[in-house]
């Protein structure tokens, strides 16, 4: 159908539905945004409007569609009676309700409430002629309650069938017949109850690394072979290997096991966790793409900080991790030509890469003979002293632009000045700390970032906008700076 005809039909459906409110969306961007609301619902529903946590547990009960309205009213009353809140979503047309509920699964009282609510809700579902598992399986979460729906006699028949085919009880024991209690073996039970000593602030998780790791509820949006939208990033390492341990979910699960200490028993020193995190690019794609905002780049940096604390680090941490320092040395000694010449000698380049922990397949980038900053200062402007009152915008001279791609910086200046803006460049010594953060050298990163704030303070006090050509540096300044220096009001 033509667009106009399709829209007319959609509007006719809306009128026929007698909806209280409706909107017909015909632009592709708006349609993608709406689909994302649906696709991410199982993740976004795990956070209440006040930021508190909500959990699966009653994801799947269903009632006849004709009973849905009455059931939902009773369901809301039951939630309120137990002092709980929940966000229902999904499959209302089939009478199947998915819901995340703000159970407190960390304390005894909360777990006890989880049990009593589950028992009461099972009776409510049955009273409305429904099923405890409308779409998925019963498993441990439902099996104890099945006698309420089927009756003890039929459940006993289930047991006889099970025994006939599995007399030794080896196949998935305790999940359907003779079940374990529904509140046994909850995954949060072995987690630490006190906050773990960490460096990042985790402001969205109350400063608690354990709560940050708990964010992952297994939605598995990270397990995609291709991006789901033109702007999606997560998760590049999984797309290459296809291994669960290289997905955001798999890494979060390993961190969970590390904190629990039952399977991964050596804590921050764990080789298994280190290996799983090794291929993480620290791209922060999960921070925006994951429905619950898992930030694996931050978790990786935190882990590496503790893993190598007081120990020798990999060579790449000393070379690439401290790249800003080495490039400043090259610029100060004006030896870019010598470095580039040596890098073109294959045996020397191979030796240097091997000693520096750099993959042999990688080419050594050419260091600029004239850095962006030197070009800027050569324009006969006072270096680093453009006052906040005179500057309309600050152009951030990140390490990569300054030393490796100064043409990007020059082009940025041209664009900004062509727009009629007065450009300032910060004083020497500013750095976003990205390479230190991504290699887990967090003490050094904090020192670098604090020095950056000292140098940038006059421009920041004036509210001068900062333009950052390098996206990864912009991400570090926007997120890592505030989360590493939460004790410094200038970082907020």
Short description, anyone?
The chain has helices at residues 3-17, 28-39, 41-44, 68-81, 108-127, 139-143, 146-150, 152-165, 209-214, 236-241, 248-260, 271-278, 285-289, 296-307, 315-319, 323-333, 336-343, 346-356, 372-377, 399-404, 406-418, 434-438, 442-461, 471-484; strands at residues 86-89, 98-101, 393-395, 423-424, 466-467. By secondary structure, the chain is mainly alpha-helical.
Provide key terms for this protein.
mainly alpha; 5 strands; Fumarate Reductase Iron-sulfur Protein, Chain B, domain 2; single chain; 3-stranded parallel beta sheet; 48% helix; Alpha-Beta Plaits; 492 residues
Strand-helix topology:
Elements: H1 3-17, H2 28-39, H3 41-44, H4 68-81, E1 86-89, E2 98-101, H5 108-127, H6 139-143, H7 146-150, H8 152-165, H9 209-214, H10 236-241, H11 248-260, H12 271-278, H13 285-289, H14 296-307, H15 315-319, H16 323-333, H17 336-343, H18 346-356, H19 372-377, E3 393-395, H20 399-404, H21 406-418, E4 423-424, H22 434-438, H23 442-461, E5 466-467, H24 471-484
Helix pairs in contact: 4-5, 11-12
């Amino acid at each position: 159908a033509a667009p106009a005809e399709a829209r007319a039909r959609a509007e006719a459906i809306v009128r026929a539905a007698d909806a209280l409110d409706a909107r017909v969306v015909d632009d592709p961007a708006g349609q993608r945004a709406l689909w994302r609301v649906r696709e991410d619902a199982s993740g976004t529903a795990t956070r209440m409007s006040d930021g508190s946590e909500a959990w699966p547990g009653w994801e799947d009960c269903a009632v006849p569609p004709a009973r849905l309205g009455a059931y939902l009213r009773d369901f809301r009353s039951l939630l309120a009676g137990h002092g709980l809140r929940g966000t229902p979503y999904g499959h209302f047309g089939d009478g199947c309700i998915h819901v995340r509920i703000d159970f407190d699964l960390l304390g005894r009282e909360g777990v006890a409430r989880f049990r009593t609510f589950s028992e009461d809700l099972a009776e409510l579902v049955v009273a409305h002629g429904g099923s405890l598992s409308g779409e998925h399986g019963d498993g441990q979460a439902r099996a104890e309650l099945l006698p309420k729906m089927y009756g003890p006699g039929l459940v006993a028949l289930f047991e006889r069938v099970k025994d006939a085919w599995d007399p030794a009880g080896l196949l998935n024991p305790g999940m359907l017949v003779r079940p374990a209690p529904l509140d046994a073996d909850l995954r949060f039970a072995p987690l630490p109850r006190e906050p773990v000593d960490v460096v990042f602030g985790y402001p969205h998780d109350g400063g608690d690394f354990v709560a940050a790791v708990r964010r992952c509820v297994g939605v598995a949006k990270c397990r995609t072979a291709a991006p789901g939208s033109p702007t999606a990033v997560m998760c590049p390492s999984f797309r290459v290997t296809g291994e669960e341990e290289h997905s955001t979910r798999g890494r979060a699960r390993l961190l969970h096991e590390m904190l629990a200490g039952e399977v991964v028993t050596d804590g921050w020193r764990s080789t298994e966790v280190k290996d799983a995190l090794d291929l993480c690019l620290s791209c922060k794609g999960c921070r925006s793409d994951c429905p619950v905002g898992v930030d694996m780049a931050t978790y990786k940096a935190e882990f590496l900080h503790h893993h190598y604390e007081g120990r020798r680090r990999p060579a790449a941490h000393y070379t690439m991790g401290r790249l800003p320092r080495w490039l400043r040395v090259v610029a100060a000694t004006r030896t870019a030509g010598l470095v580039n010449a040596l890098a073109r000698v294959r045996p020397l380049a191979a030796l240097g890469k091997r000693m520096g922990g750099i993959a042999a397949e990688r080419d050594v980038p050419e260091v600029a003979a004239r850095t962006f900053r030197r070009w800027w200062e050569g324009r006969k402007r006072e270096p680093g002293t453009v006052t906040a009152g005179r500057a309309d915008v600050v152009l951030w001279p990140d390490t990569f632009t300054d030393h490796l791609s100064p043409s990007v910086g020059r082009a940025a200046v041209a664009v900004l000045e062509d727009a009629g803006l007065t450009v300032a460049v910060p004083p020497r010594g500013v750095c976003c700390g990205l390479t230190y953060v991504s290699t887990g050298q967090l003490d050094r990163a904090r020192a670098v970032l604090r020095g950056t704030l000292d140098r940038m303070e006059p421009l920041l006090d004036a509210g001068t906008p900062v333009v950052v050509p390098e996206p990864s540096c912009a991400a570090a300044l926007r997120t890592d700076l505030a989360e590493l220096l939460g004790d410094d009001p200038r970082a907020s």
